[in-house]
Specification:
The chain has seven helices and no strands. With 199 residues, it is mainly alpha-helical. The chain has a single domain, classed as Up-down Bundle (Four Helix Bundle (Hemerythrin (Met), subunit A)). It is globular, with a radius of gyration of 18 Å.
Length: 199
Amino acid sequence: MTDKHSFWWLPNAISIIRLLCVPVLLLLALEGTEALFAALLFLALASDLVDGWLARRWCVVSKHGALLDSIADIALTLCILAGAWILHPGMYEDDGWVIYTLLCAWLLAHSASLLRYGRLASFHTWLIRIGIATFNVFALILFTLDYYPWLLYLSASLSLLGVLEHFALLVLLPEWSPDIPGGLPEVLRRRSGSQENPH
């Protein structure tokens, strides 16, 4: 039987491949090949589900892996926004303020993480994941079907809630902590438990 831990490198390798997809996606967008762009984007987004699942299943979650995953996610999200700018400029003309607001909020959140911990945060809470997942669905529908403003508003609203939770966690967590699925409620429970049982 194969030792699963011998594949400890695979989740990080998948994250690196996702990161390498970014320049290829930008090239496809510049060439106007939206179908190929959408197909590669789907594979890149799917890889984001696979690497985290493998890392947790094989118990090879690491700080470096979580950080690499976050960097790849940020790069891919910026690539999606750039692809939309190139392939669907009308979206920015009609609802650019939504995208700019969300982008500024996330830049502030990651800048605050760098100031707080000296590195990007990798909380990976359910709220943040839901916001990202909704945005990814919006992106895939945009590049394969059409632009639906309500889906942009929904994903932006959920993502902004994730940003607010992100800031709350920055305040409550003095040390860098990756993967907190329960998010703010989980951290508050931890703090409440530690105060009730100081010893």
